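Format notes (please read before filing issues)

Several people have asked whether sequences and structure tokens are stored in separate files. They are not. Every record keeps both together, in the order shown below: the sequence lines, then the token lines. Line labels are part of the format and must not be stripped during preprocessing.
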Amino acid sequence: MADLTQSEPLKTQEPVWQVKTRTRASGLFAIFSGALVLGLALLPLFAGRGLIQDLFFILTMLVLAQLWNLLAGYGGLVSVGQQAFVGVGAYAMFAAAIFAGIDPVAAILLGGLAALVVAIPMGFFAFRLAGAYFAIGTWVMAEVVRLILAQVKPLGGGTGTSLPRSVTSEIWATGWIEQTLDVKASAARDILNYWLALGLAVLVIAAIYALLRSRRGLALSAVRDNPEAAKSVGVDAGLVKWLVFLAASCGTGLAGALIYVQKARLSPDAAFSVTDWTAYVIFIVVIGGLGTIEGPILGVLVFFALQSLLADFGSWYLITLGLIGIVVMLFAPKGLWGLISARTGLHLFPIRRRLEGTGLADKTADTAP
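Then the structure lines:
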């Protein structure tokens, strides 16, 4: 007779869940992005000098916009003093190239380091302010830095200075570019700076995306939305803000140094221009979409198109930019990309985590009494 005290294990199936951030659209866009970056890298082989210079401008403004968006859109730190780090990076690069004989390409790294050093005392005072006071405080401190560097006579004082011809004529890799692509020295410098700008833009976007997908990114969003609630679950709000502020400052300094390697002419008013390096950057982020990686990319393209169309209209150009910014904020508070995303559900750089079922898994249940 069979033993009735024992029975076969009961097999059941239960759903398997997995946390995901990527979407089908983001996967396709990643492939497209790789092809696009490769195409842009090869562009100097057949493109004219004018197009290379335009793309250099777009890429450097994109870097500045992404870094400001990291501060304001993801960290809730609305700074109006980012021009301080552009200027410091440029001045550090000039000083290293002129006085220490360091190649301007290598001196770009010193520009980022100098901006990082200056950001420490600025942050010490700025983080004692909040909201509009933080924004005004960063602006005031940027002006203080500008006034200090305007007194440095070896770098031209208030009128500025230029990189000596002996420096610009021997920039790393320009000789190789001249011979390989059969271009003039000035065009070779433009191509080198363009490649550096492309590399910096890719690095900044990739680093920001990786940060936002990490636990630090979750902590940053929590601090932005509700600092007190974030602290209550163990997030060190002060440390998170410091890390983002320093990272954005260093990246802005790198971009500033690179911009002035291209310009080869430096003055305090230009290097610390609140219009060029902060107002335009804010405009790009606002019309593109604050708090998204896609927003600054779309915004910088719109900004460049408007600049190309309206730059000859003088003060009307700035008035038009202001009116467009107001209209976008009124009718599309999340920017143009926010409007597109809301209607299509498209996310090219998804960072939101969602729970998806990936199938069924066998589970054995013990049915013994």
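For reference, the curators noted about this record: Residues 44-347 form a domain with the ABC transporter involved in vitamin B12 uptake, BtuC fold (CATH 1.10.3470). The chain has a mean pLDDT of 87.
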